[in-house]
Design a protein that fits this description.
This protein is an alpha/beta fold. It is about 40% helix and about 20% strand. It has seven helices and seven strands; from the N terminus they run αβαβαβαααβαβββ. The chain has helices at about 5-15, 45-60, 75-90, 110-120, 125-130, 145-160, 175-185; strands spanning about 20-25, 65-70, 95-100, 165-170, 200-205, 210-215, 220. The protein has a seven-stranded mixed sheet with strand order 3-2-4-1-5-6-7, with helices on both faces. Strand 5 (about 200-205) and strand 6 (about 210-215) form a beta hairpin. Helix 2 crosses helix 3 (about 75-90), helix 4 (about 110-120) crosses helix 5 (about 125-130) and helix 6 (about 145-160) crosses helix 7 (about 175-185).
């Protein structure tokens, strides 16, 4: 499965169901991994830019796109390219702006985090420690608190009642996607596939209730 395909399928399925307002949290597109460069400063690759535009061109044009992103430039650019391609294909777009809560706000000490990750042996092992509340609170905010902050942000956007069908695009990082999958969907990283570029999680309303869904399983009611 290529980056963006499962996210596009999720969007299409919800549109076909008649959902008129989707809040989509997704990982940025393919990025560089330059040794010695601060991780958050690594930009998109040319391939990543192409993948973002490809997704934007395929999103249903019945949806108006509005963008929210992590402060990291690769997230800002991912949203901008998706929206640009959507507009070029005849879709409507609104503005695209940075929201701190879509960044890695939960990381309180990045150096200690990298050291702790090395000590556990892998990112998956470290995530499991965090999700189980076994990481020191001076390294990362509690996982349940972090997930609730992001979920509430998504719910606040969902409360708005747009006049036209809308997709609120929230571009963040894989750590954030893993966090919500584990804490809100019970889809832990040891039993579900890795979060790849452009993977997304949708929040939407059905019969007056808020639901959250990844492409792996049916939607579950969102309660935070």
């Amino acid at each position: 499965m290529n980056p963006g395909e499962t996210t596009l399928q999720l969007i299409n399925d919800l549109v076909d169901e008649g959902i008129e307002h989707i809040v989509l949290l997704m990982r940025h597109s393919a990025r560089e991994y330059e040794p010695g460069r601060h991780d958050l400063l690594n930009p998109l690759t040319d391939e990543g830019r192409g993948l973002a535009r490809q997704l934007g061109g395929a999103i249903p044009k019945s949806l108006t796109l509005r963008g929210f992103t992590s402060p990291a430039e690769r997230c800002v650019e991912t949203a901008a390219l998706i929206m640009e391609a959507h507009k070029e294909g005849g879709g409507l777009t609104m503005r695209n702006r940075v929201v701190e809560a879509l960044g890695v706000f939960y990381v309180l000490d990045q150096m200690k985090m990298f050291m702790a990750m090395q000590a556990t042996g892998s990112m998956v092992s470290f995530q499991q420690e965090w999700f189980s509340e076994n990481v020191s609170p001076d390294i990362l905010m509690p996982s349940h608190t972090s997930a609730a902050i992001i979920a509430r942000l998504m719910l606040e956007k969902l409360k708005e009642k747009p006049e036209k069908s809308r997709l609120d695009l929230m571009v963040s990082h894989d750590f954030t996607i893993y966090l919500l999958k584990d804490q809100l969907l019970d889809q832990d990283s040891t039993h579900y596939p890795d979060v790849i570029y452009l993977d997304g999680i949708a929040v939407f309303e059905r019969d007056g209730k808020a639901f959250i869904q990844s492409h792996h399983e049916p939607a579950v009611e969102l309660r935070v």
